[in-house]
Design a protein that fits this description.
By secondary structure, this protein is an alpha/beta fold. The protein has 13 helices and 13 strands. The protein has helices spanning about 1-30, 45-60, 80-90, 105-110, 150-160, 175-190, 210-215, 230, 235-245, 255, 270-285, 305-310, 315-325; strands spanning about 35-40, 70-75, 95-100, 120, 140-145, 170-175, 195-200, 220-225, 250, 260-265, 295, 300-305, 330. It has a 6-stranded parallel beta sheet with strand order 2-1-3-4-5-11, with helices on both faces. The chain is globular, with a radius of gyration of 25 Å.
């Protein structure tokens, strides 16, 4: 009988050991799939292109949606309360990394967590938006990619296409930190280059029609900085400007496709790809605090020949050649 009890005890120990081993194996095979929360301010071509690029960048680094990474994509539809709620959602679901597309989205994420890694999905001025301590040494849980436009090159392009321009208008959203910062930078640049700049600001898209009508009657050309509000209503601005034969030069390539005349800008999709790759590096263990903000310095020529025809403007042959060889041509 004692021998039987002994055998039973050994069997129990063996089964227990086997159960523990199986549990460990199951845990290994059901390893937590990382979650990446992506918060986008609103929908328009530039931000949508960044989002698509992020997914592509993650995939290039081995993180495939539905396979070994979960993406929780939320669009705030330009609503501040949505930004706050959606940021809290990511924190509550214990996301492994969060990505903010557009400055207000990134700021909402930073307000929601000081520990979860946050990647900036093309934010114009990370330090100016108080998202990092410095662009070279972020120093906290935030790093990412900047979409700072090559302003000097863009101004030279405008002057090249419009050599007889007397007054250049700029329109931006006063509540958009990035757009406002870019306006001040561009204004300083115009002053240095002796270009007469006339500024117009809007509070929201409802103001765009009236303000743009006033603007196009007073300027020879219009410059639009990286501004999500204006970008979301680009068709309104283009229609008003085209009716007065005034060309619109946007800071962003996707706004040329929407009817702008030309730009030398950073490719939004490629910015997204870089953001996705940076996020992948963080998922693999890289620390945001030690990861400098990534800046893309060289822009690509983008032109819209259909818009040029409507305006009766002949683009310089060198501009067309560069767009065909190294950029994008919309017809």
């Amino acid at each position: 009988m004692k021998r039987l009890y002994g055998l039973i005890a050994i069997l129990i120990v063996f089964l227990g050991f086997a159960f523990v081993q199986e549990s460990h194996q199951e845990a290994a095979t059901t390893k937590k799939v990382p979650t990446v929360g992506i918060l986008q301010l609103l929908s328009h071509p530039a931000l949508d292109a960044i989002h698509k690029g992020i997914v592509h960048g993650l995939a290039e680094e081995g993180y495939h949606v539905g396979k070994n990474v979960k993406i929780d994509f939320q669009n705030a539809e330009n609503d501040q309360s949505n930004l706050k709620t959606m940021s809290a959602r990511f924190v509550n679901e214990d996301a492994d990394a969060m990505i903010g597309i557009a400055t207000p989205a990134a700021q909402a994420l930073a307000n929601a967590s000081s520990t979860t890694p946050i990647v900036l999905g093309a934010i114009t001025d990370p330090k100016g938006a108080h998202l990092v301590k410095s662009n070279t040494h972020p120093g906290n849980n935030v790093t990412g990619v900047s979409d700072q436009a090559p302003l000097a090159s863009q101004l030279k392009l405008i002057q090249k296409i419009m050599p007889n321009m007397k007054t250049l208008g700029i329109i931006y959203t006063s509540s958009d930190d990035s757009a406002t910062a870019q306006y001040h930078q561009f204004a300083a640049l115009c002053k240095r280059e002796h270009v007469r700049l006339k500024a117009y600001s809007i509070a929201n898209t409802n103001d765009l029609n009236q303000v743009s009508q006033q603007m196009v009657s007073q300027v020879d050309a219009v410059y639009v900085p990286t501004d999500n509000t204006v970008a979301s209503a680009m068709q309104t601005l283009v229609a008003t400007a085209t009716a007065k034969k005034v060309p619109v030069f946007p800071a962003v390539d996707t706004m040329v496709k929407a009817g702008g005349l030309a730009t030398l800008s950073i490719n939004q999709y490629k910015l997204g790809v870089t953001t996705g790759k940076m996020t992948a590096a963080i998922l693999k263990g890289k620390k945001p605090a030690d990861t400098p903000i990534h800046f893309v310095r060289k822009g690509e020529m983008t032109i819209n020949l259909k818009t040029a025809k409507k305006l009766g403007i002949t683009l310089p042959a060198s501009v067309v050649k560069e767009a065909k060889q190294h950029g994008e041509v919309y017809r």
